[in-house]
Every structure is written in C-alpha cells, then in structure tokens.
Amino acid sequence: xxxxxxxxxxxxxxxxxxxxxxxxxxxxxxxxxxxxxxxxxxxxxxxxxxxxxxxxxxxxxxxxxxxxxxxxxxxxxxxxxxxxxxxxxxxxxxxxxxxxxxxxxxxxxxxxxxxxxxxxxxxxxxxxxxxxxxxxxxxxxxxxxxxxxxxxxxxxxxxxxxxxxxxxxxxxxxxxxxxxxxxxxxxxxxxxxxxxxxxxxxxxxxxxxxxxxxxxxxxxxxxxxxxxxxxxxxxxxxxxxxxxxxxxxxx
Amino acid sequence: xxxxxxxxxxxxxxxxxxxxxxxxxxxxxxxxxxxxxxxxxxxxxxxxxxxxxxxxxxxxxxxxxxxxxxxxxxxxx
Lengths: 251, 77
What we know:
Oligomer: heterodimer
Largest sheet of chain B: 3 strands, antiparallel
Distance between the termini of chain B: 34 Å
Shape of chain B: elongated
Number of domains of chain B: 1
Strand order of the largest sheet of chain B: 4-1-5
C-alpha cells in the first residue's frame, strides 16, 4: 500500500480555475444518510441506511490570490450553477486517481486579514449529483500545438474497460489560441492499442472552460488516450488542461 | 481488392503495415494517420477491423452501394 501526502496533490481545479497553488487543505466527505428505525417493543436501537449518499467538499483553507485564474476570481462572483471539480489526490500523472464531480456549487467564500500574516481565503462548496473516483487520462499539462497521447497511451487493464459508458471530466485552465479558431479535446479508446477511435469529444473552446460528459451505452476499451486539435491552426497556440475518466461497470 | 470502410467516428492508426509493426513493438516514433468521421478508407489495420465493426465505430462500404448520406438526401426529397 502506498501512502500519499500533500506534495502528491497534483491539482485542484474548480471549473477552469486552478486552485492548487493557493490551497492548503480540503476535505472530501462521503456520507450515507441513515434513519433511526427503532420500533416499539425493543430496547435496542435499529438504524436503517437509506439509499441517499451525500458528497461534500468542506474545510477548504488557502490564501487570497487575485490572479485571473485563481481563487478570488473563482469565488467572488459566487456563480450558482454546478461546476466541474477535479482533484488529483495521488499525483499529476496519467493512471493516478482523481476525485471528480460535475456538481460543485459555490456556497461560501471567506477572506481574513491579520497583521503579520498573508491574507487567507477559503471557499465552501456544496455537491450535487455524482462524485467519481476517476483515472487521469491526461494530467494537467501545458501543451503547444496539436497532439495526442497514443504513443504513451494508458492501459486501464484487462478489467478496466466497460460496456455501459463512462463519465469524462475535463478542465482547461489556460488557453492561448494565437489566431487558431478553437481547441477541441477528444477522449479516445482502443481495443488493441493500434487503432484509436474517438469516444467523447469535448465542446470546442475559445476561452478556458470545463466540461463533464456522460455516456451509458457505449463500450469503453481498456486502452485510452487524449487527442487535442487547434482548429484552423495558426501561430503557436498553447493550452493547459486535464482529462479524467470513470468507466462504468467494468467487465 | 481491399474492402472499404466508413469511419463512423474519427480514427487514428499507424500509417501503413510498417508503422503498424513499429507500433506493435512499442516504437515511440510511429507515423499516425488521421481519418475524420465519415471518411471512407481501405487502410485500417486488419487486426483492428473486427472490434471496430463490432462496436459500430466503422461500417463496411459495399461497392456500388449508395452512401447513407445520399440515401438520406433522397428520402428528404
């Protein structure tokens, strides 16, 4: 068994905002709701587990940072829509686990100021919907021009594929098109690691963004990769993005 | 004569048998070929065709058969 520490947290992304370098703590909670079902006629408590599972991200601590892609910008507007959240807990490396959700709702933002200290800032997030234990397909990396990872694809293993689709999470934290039309990132898979087929194409980006796409009836093969194309390639475009996948019901 | 297949999704594969051999040997210097969705090709690596057909990523194009696009246009008229 491998133990991990704070240095192994590869990234913490809220939508297109990279909060990694200004965060020092966050708690990822999974709670099954229970109900006291103790009836008459017994002196022993009976607790029933309901089907409801709560996901929460609490206890965030960090520093105030006014960069355009950082915490203050992410939180000050307090957008009410659910946002993609991606957190690499065991390293920013393909094949490592990432906690991902499409349902992070920004509910609280607190800044504190004290003499002799750096300004602190912390956020509160409520989570709606699913939270997945994903596998990083493409780590958060600065890329230049078109590219793909087939030459160094990721093997999910014999039991890693599935026949009931997958959940794909994507966040692009930096994008410079330099005259190109847009950026399209595609999640690909292969049964033989020779031919790769597009599995899920993310929406074309003209500015930074994030996205979650789910499928339920597609076969996802064991070899997976990412491909990125700058449509109408011009200049030397760059992007920094991460892609992670949770395959449903492995074989 | 090699069979023709229509890519139902975008594909990427080694460009020719020599490149397929390099890929099998995990040579990092493989020349890849991009095939966009809808393209009809004859050079998909033979070992990949069965799974691509089974998973509806490609379809065989019979000689002389109208493309699905043309059939649809005829229906619309």
